[in-house]
Each structure stands twice: as C-alpha cells, then as structure tokens.
Amino acid sequence: MDVLRTLFTLMIFPGGLFILFNGMVYEWADRKLVARLQNRVGPRWFQPLADMLKLLAKEEVVPASVDARLFIGLPVIALAGVLTAALYLPIAGLPPAYSFPGDLIVTVYMLSLLTLCTGIAGANTNNRFSLVGATRTLTQLFSYEAPFMLAMLGPAVAAGSWQIDEVMGYAAEHPVILMQPVGFVIALIGLMGKLEMRPFDAPEAETEIVAGAMTEYSGRGLALFYLGRYVELIAGLTLVAAFYLGGIQNPLDYFVKTLALLLVLVGLQTLMTRLRIDQTVGLWWRYGTLLVLLQWFVTLLLRS
Amino acid sequence: MSTDGSLSGKRFIVPIGPQHPALKEPGHFSFTVDGEVVTDASVRLGYAHRGIEKATESRNWTQSLYLLERICGICSHVHALAYCLGVEKLAGVEVPPRAQAIRVLVAELERIHSHFLWLGVAAHEAGFDTLFMYTWRDRETVMDILETLTGNRVNYSANVLGGVKFDVMPEIGDTIRRGLEFLEGRTHHYLEVVTTDQVFLQRTRGVGVMSLEQAETLGVVGPTARASGVIRDIRVEAPYAAYADYPVQPVLAEAGDLEARFIVRIKELFESYRIIRQILDTLPVGELQTRMPRRVKAGETVSRVEAPRGELFYFIKSNGTDNPERVKVRTPTLCNMASVLVTAVGHQLADMPMILAGIDPCFSCNDRTVVVADAGGAAYNWEQIRHYGIAFYQGK
C-alpha cells in the first residue's frame, strides 16, 4: 500500500497530473487575462491543453548539429526538476507531500533547473538565435537568481528555519509582507524573471531572436519545456503566497492567494515594455540585490 | 541563415530575414554582433519584387492607375495620387479644385491610418504589445471612415485620371468629424504614453540617434528626416494637389532618436486632423472630374508627393500612345534604408527591430529589381532572359 500511496503522490496528486493541469489552467488564466487587458479575445479554456496534446503527439525533430542525448534529455530533466520542487510545496493548500529540514534550499534549486536546462538546450544547438537566446537566458538567470533566492530566504531567516512547512507556520502568525515588503516585491518580480514574462522576456524576444533558446525545439521537447514552465508558475506562486501572504492553510486559501498573485503578474505584464538584457541585469544588480540585502540586514537586526 | 562567417570564426552574424517574426515583409539583414553589440550591418532587398513598373508598360494609362495603387497596401492612395498628378501634368489637364481638395482629404486620412499602424508595429517591436493592440483598435475608426467615404478599406481607388470618383457629402463630413474627435483624444493619450512611460523610454530615448548632418548626408526623407531636424516635407516644399490652399506646418524634432520619431509621427497626426477639418469646412464647390484624353502627349515628367513615410517619387514618360513608355517609382523606404545600417552600429541587438521599424519600412513597395549575387555560371542579358522566359512558357 505504501508503494501505491507514493505512486499516487508522485503521479496523480499533488505531483504529476494535478499540478500539470493546474499549471495549464493558470497559464490559460494568464493568457486570457493579458489578452482581455490588451483588448484581444484571448484563448479558449482548453487552449493550453490542446497545445500540449498537439505538441506531444508531434514528431520531435532533432537537428543535425546537436548532441542528441542532451537535446532529448534536457526537457525531461527540466520538467522533472520543477515537479520535484512541487512535492515540497503546499500545492492545493494541502501539507507538502514531503518535508525535511532544508527543503527550501532544494526547492529553490530545483526551480532554477528549468532555466538552466533551457540555457544549456539553447547552447547545445548550432542555431544563432538559440545561442543568443541561451546567452540571454543564462545572463538573466545570474541576475535575478541571487535576489530571488535572498527574497525567498528572508522569511526563512525571520522564522529561523529552512523548512518550508515551518516557515509557513511562522508566516501564518506574522504579517511577513509588512515586515519584509521589499522581499515580497523582489520575490514577485524575480518570479516574472524566472518565468520569462514581460518585461523580462528578452531571452525569447520574438522580434529579435525568434524563440530564443527554444528555436530548434519542436514536438515533445518543446511541450515538456512548456509544461515545466507551467509547473514553475504554480510552484513559484505557491512559494511566494506561502511565505509572504500568510501561509496556505486550505484549498480555498491556496486558490485565492495564488490567483491574486497571478492577477498582479498579469497587470505588470500588460503595462511593461520588454527590457533589454543589459537593462535587466542593471535593474537586478543595481537595485534588486542591494535592496534585498538591506532587507536582510534589517531582518537580522530585528531578530537579534 | 547567412552562409558567410561560420560560428567558429570571429564574426558572429545574426540574420534577420527574409523570414523572421520581426519582419512583416521579406528583407534580409545581417547583423554582425560582438556579444550583444552590433558591429556591422548589411541589408539585402528585392525579395518582394513584383515587376509592377514593367507591367505598366503593357497596360493603358487608366489600367496602370489601378496597378500602381496596389504597390503599397498601406499608402495606396499616395501612389495613385502621384501617378495621377504626373499624368495630368503630361496631358495638360486642369483638375477641378474640389477634386484636389478631396484627394488631400483622403491622403491625410491615409496618413492617420498609416501612422497609427506604425505606432502599433513599433510598439510591438519593442515588446509593448498593449500599445500595439490599443493603437490598432483605434485605427479601425479611421479605416471605417475611409470605408464610408470610398467604399474600401485599403485600396480606396479614390482617384481617376482627371479627378476623383466620389463626392464628400455633408453627412459624411459629420461622421469624419466625430471619428477625428475620438482619434484626437486617443492621440493625446499615446503622445503622453510614449513621452512619459519610463520603461518604454528606456528603449527609445537616445537609441538610434541620427544627427542633422547624418540625416542630410544619407538623404533620409519624411518623418525620419524631420525627427532629426531636417525640414523635408513635399507638402511644404512643393505643395501639390490642394496643399497650397491648405498649408501644412511641418512637425520637427531635434533629438533624432527613436523617441523623436515617435513624437514627430504622433504630432503629425494632429496636423492631419487640423487639415481634414479645414478641408471639410472649406471644401470648394465645383466639378469632380475633367475629361481626360485617352492618349497622353509625348514627354516626360516627375511627380512627387509626401507619403506617410516620406517623399514618394514618380518618373513618368509618355510616347504619345495610350500606354506609358516608362514609369519609375522610388518609395521613401529606399531613401531611409541606409540610415538603418548606419545607426545600427554600436547598438544592442535588441534595439535592431526598433531601429528598423523607426523608418517605417515598407519592403515590397521599395523592391524594384532582383540582384542575383552569384548566378553560378553565365549571366543573361535582358534580351536573353526575355527569350528564355518566352521559351519556358511555350514549353509548358
């Protein structure tokens, strides 16, 4: 029975199928809301699902000049990484499937795996757009990753634990968003960087480099990368909501808080122009990192 | 993918086009980049050559009008206008003032729709899709006006040789005024957006700067030139049609960067609104057409009009028959193209689509000839290629 339970946890709920569908629904909500704000009609409710089914059913073209094992393996690793991260999160408002002291570090690391895989996947191909896109993806990774991680660790420092469950317990009792407002903003904007949402979509700026690192991907590989991004959207929203918006206690709590955050992301996406990659780096290192470090300093002072 | 400069070599060339999401029409740009910084740029045009100039020679004067109107899908009216003005000059025909005023009216409406379209495209290149969608929604207003007025949204077919096809009734005038009122409000809003949105300004201010001297040297035309402080506007310099009666105040900017090009084009919209209102208020009474001879006297002439993108140049030669002997068209994009290559160097790759969009390029309008860089064997001359073509189609 234990094996069956583990399998259920990994494949159906909260990992696996549930989070994939959850991700697709949120992706649809994101696209639909952005479209409505932009005076467009937007996709129908099943569009992300239809896209995924179509892509998964299609032939995956492996370009001649790539390392085929990497080319096929990277999307799998990327998706596996974010799905693993999701296991340590209170998805759908239920307690995390797994938990151990220090799982926060593992989760944040696993969430970066997707971007890293995207970068390597781009660098693996011989396509110029992919190479430029890969450079940008990795450059962007190095710019937002540190501040994002620091922003995620901020509440952990205040709670005095590296375990997501315990930080969440702390967040439920303390108004973290008021104690660390800078951290909240950085975490949210860092999440946009992670998901390559506008204004941080320079790595896949279609008017410059077509699809960036993803240019050579088609069929299954592309679908897996997309699914990875959907899951990351869910994981990121859950993490931010759990740490900064007073924890996630029940399913209603979960949907209300993550959707509220999604709404903020939609608004920002609609308002912004794409930043150049040098502007992105400048923004993060000149302001983001310094501000979040200052926040840390204040948090540490208050704690002692 | 361009073939010169391998990946292992020192030169890393990012090809944009002929098929690329940034381009709505085919054109090929090779940007040599060092990291993200562009160190060299070259362009290859001619992918959309359609042989329209040649085709006019086998059509009569009236048929050629419809063909030439289809050179551009955005500024169709100015092509027909330039052609009509040239042919009328050759034939020595005096067009009634009411017709000339209506021609200017349509030309200015077309400028509004073209500038709105450009604003959206440029915003899209910068990754500001919200502005893109909003401007194109508002552009529908002027498209509807044009449809109400002429019956068509794109190729209005307003001109005939010797006049215009339709009259502007007072009730249509009210529709136009209502539309303009709405558009004017929106234009004020967009002007505010492109001059105050900090994120957007980061992408436009100081980007693609072209000094007055450079603009003079490169011979740029239209809003691109005016954004660099060059007063170059055919409507002002050599008023045609009814522009002498409805004088235009040229809109100038000094900075020469992308922001200036946005400001110039948006402010020109206000000028267009003003002229259209003035025409509606003081439309001369009289005939719409004069009689045009079927054959045009032998001779040659040049006709210039200010298209939304800049100076549109027509050379027309007649040999006294009912077909033109030669029609040569030079569109503003060709004049402005060199400025892209010059201003591109030193900027980031990310700025390239915007710098390119900054001149409001229209590729298929400016493509006049095909240059085969390497034919891989013997080259044909004109006679040989003609015979080859005839033999090819007879063999089918």
Descriptive account of the structure:
The complex is a heterodimer of chains A (304) and B (396). Chain A is 73% helix and 0% strand. Chain A is globular. By secondary structure, chain A is mainly α. The longest helix of chain A is centred in the middle third of the chain and has 32 residues, at 128-159. In chain A, helix 6 packs across helix 7, helix 6 packs antiparallel against helix 9 and helix 9 packs antiparallel against helix 11 (219-244). Chain A has one domain (50-303). Chain B is of the alpha+beta class. Chain B has one domain (52-336): Cytochrome-c3 Hydrogenase, chain B. Chain B is 49% helix and 12% strand. Chain B is built from 15 helices and 8 strands. The model of chain B is unreliable at 1-6 (pLDDT under 50). Classes of the chains: A mainly alpha (304), B alpha+beta (396). Chains A and B meet through helix 6, helix 10 and helix 13 of A and strand 1, helix 4, helix 5 and helix 7 of B.
What is this structure's SSE topology?
The complex is a heterodimer of chains A (304) and B (396).
Chain A: H1 2-11, H2 17-37, H3 47-57, H4 68-87, H5 103-124, H6 128-159, H7 164-173, H8 176-179, H9 181-194, H10 206-209, H11 219-244, H12 251-271, H13 277-303
Chain B: E1 12-16, E2 28-34, E3 37-44, H1 52-56, H2 61-69, H3 76-91, H4 97-125, H5 129-150, E4 159-160, E5 163-164, H6 170-196, H7 198-204, H8 212-218, H9 222-226, H10 234-237, H11 258-281, E6 299-307, E7 310-318, E8 324-330, H12 332-344, H13 352-358, H14 363-366, H15 382-395
Antiparallel strand pairs in B: 1-2, 2-3, 4-5, 6-7, 7-8
